[in-house]
Specification:
The chain has 332 residues and is of the alpha/beta class. Helices cover 42% and strands 15% of the residues. The longest helix has 24 residues. The chain binds zinc ion.
């Protein structure tokens, strides 16, 4: 069976959100990825709980996403943690404290434990670990590079224990290995939390190679606690090879999903779409489907027509997506 979803954020007034959720159900979606930011956790938990309840009452599966939490996940939102809890932050190789929490810091993991419990208490059925990463600098690939993170006290101690030497100042192969190991261990921790709470875990790989994200995607795909693996191969305005671009990413995910008995998911661009380029959406969806992907999600609801990332003609984006989703469900 094909699964079709969309992300939803920006409205924390449950009786207003109800209209949107009905529109999502009417647009042939089967699940909704609700953002659950630090701000939501602190100020809007009850409203998010009502929105999740309404989601499920409409027969839609409810996912919750640690949107921008600690800035270590994707998300167009701010983090208070990186200001209030400076000790949790990543530190660059040159010693600067960066506005992003460290994946290795026990204090950040403690926050995420509380976040996961809150999300499941509100009715989440899937926890969506979206684009986990270390601080991202542009990289030249050279081992002498000094613009990287994290070299905080926690990371230095973990590196010393693992490699029996002080953590270098440069991005050596050992440092790259350490960062990859840290990312895998972080995901293991998150998935264990989800399983302990009785829900499914999904994750989204950033779709490019960098020492701050995953390079060996198979290591995470192999985690027993991870149920759904995906990526978000978003295309740029006026990009002409959308089907090939999305198809490559979809093949990579489909291959990993088959090898590790996971569900493969592809995210479809539904923001920043230029007027007249809505036709890229069916091209992307067809490319993912042809690669064997049966779980598709779009970022975000109604062509993102309410945020600075808005599509030029959000209604047309939304209708195009709905027509694609309807056609997928009609296939046998
Ligand atoms: Zn660190």
């Amino acid at each position: 069976m094909v699964k079709t979803g969309v992300s939803y954020y920006g409205c924390r007034i449950p009786w207003r959100a109800r209209e949107d959720l009905q529109a999502i159900a009417d647009n042939h979606c089967t699940f909704v990825v609700h953002t659950f930011s630090e701000e939501d956790h602190e100020f809007y938990a009850k409203a998010v709980g009502e929105i999740v309840r309404e989601t499920r009452a409409l027969g839609l599966e409810a996912w919750l996403d640690p949107w921008g939490v600690g800035q270590a996940f994707g998300g167009e939102t701010y983090s208070a943690l990186v200001m209030k809890r400076r000790e949790l932050c990543q530190v660059s190789a040159s010693g600067d404290t960066l506005p992003i929490c460290c994946l290795n810091h026990p204090g950040f993991r403690e926050y995420l434990t509380q976040w996961a419990k809150a999300a499941v208490d509100l009715g989440a059925q899937v926890l969506f670990w979206d684009e986990p990463h270390f601080f991202i600098y542009p990289e030249d690939g050279s081992p002498s590079a000094t613009r990287w993170a994290c070299r905080c006290a926690v990371c230095q101690a973990k590196f010393q224990a693992a490699f029996r030497q002080p953590m270098p100042m440069t991005l050596t192969p050992d440092v790259r290995r350490f960062k990859e190991d840290s990312l895998v261990e972080f995901l293991t921790f998150l998935c264990d939390e989800g399983k302990r709470l009785g829900v499914r875990n999904a994750m989204c790989y950033l779709p490019f190679e960098n020492s701050s994200t995953f390079s060996d995607w198979a290591r995470v795909a192999a985690l027993p606690g991870l149920d759904i693996i995906g990526t978000d191969p978003y295309w740029r305005p006026h990009q002409t090879d959308v089907a090939a671009h999305v198809g490559r990413a979809a093949q990579r995910i489909a291959g990993l999903a088959a090898a590790h008995q996971k569900e493969g998911q592809i995210w479809i661009l539904n923001f920043n779409i230029k007027r007249g380029e809505e036709g890229r959406i069916p091209e992307a969806i067809e490319a993912a489907y042809a690669a064997g992907i049966r779980n598709l999600a779009a970022w975000s609801y109604y062509g993102a027509g309410y945020i600075s990332l808005a599509s030029d003609d959000p209604q047309r984006v939304w209708e195009t997506l709905g027509a694609c989703y309807a056609a997928l469900h009609a296939r046998k």
